[in-house]
Amino acid sequence: MALLVVAFTAFGCGHYLPSSGWITLIDGESGFDNWDVSGSKANWRPAEGSIQADKTTGKGSSVLVSKKSFKDVELYVEFWAGDDTNSGVYLRVRNPNDVSTSTGAYEVQIWDKNPNPAYSTGSLVNVASVQPIYKAGGKWNVYEITAKGPDITVKLNGFVTVHARDDRYPEGRLGLQFNGGPIKVRKLMVKEL
After folding, report:
1. Would residue 29 count as lying in a domain?
2. Residue 48 belongs to a domain with what CATH number?
3. 124 domain-assigned
4. How far apart, in whole angstroms, are the C-alpha atoms of residue 18 and residue 165?
5. From CA 193, how far away is CA 175, in angstroms rounded?
6. Nearest by Cα to 134 from 157, 115, 153
């Protein structure tokens, strides 16, 4: 009985890590070769157990874009953001050389202090707004994102933040945005549905 208590204490409090059928694109400092850099030149690099960026030498955002395109997926992303970070996870990127929601992509927002609070952390930018109650700054977080057909669901640390239906972009690449403030990703896994 004591061993069961120890096991539940040690493992039961941790977050579920997916395993079967998943492709790992980032695992600590590994996986940088699964991505191309688009946009401004940021200092994307493997360091301190993650892939991260905290400086740019250009204007606008810098985006790591997956080399592979995906259609229907589940994503599991462990990330750390500063209090002032402006970042996001892109889905179904249509143009890997010009990544934004206006050029064809969905963005799951990481930006606690967005001047438009309806599209702060946990939102699906320009598709599904949130109450500005979700905060990612200064801690490790988990996004679980499902995109199947027109249905997109976002969970942040186990809580559903948005569920939306939008069929404009059925397929495309994944992306990780840096647009100011530090961002670190220590795990990114994808499962095709």
Report:
1. yes
2. 2.60.120.560
3. yes
4. 25
5. 18
6. 157
Q: Where are the alpha helices (DSSP H) in the chain?
A: 2-11
**Of 188, 177, 174, 190, nearest in space to 87 by CA:** 177
96 lies in some domain: yes
Structure tokens at 151: 């249905």
- CA–CA dist 20, 107 (Å, integer): 26
Number of domains in the chain: 1
Buried b (16+ CB within 10 A) or exposed e, 153-173: bbbbbeeebbebeeeebeebb
Q: How does pLDDT run along the chain (193 residues), one tens digit per residue?
A: 444 333 433 333 345 556 689 999 999 999 999 999 999 999 999 999 999 999 988 888 999 999 999 999 999 999 999 999 999 999 999 999 999 999 999 999 999 999 999 999 999 999 999 998 999 999 999 999 999 999 999 999 999 999 999 999 999 999 999 999 999 999 999 999 9
* Chain position carrying tokens 């397929």: 171
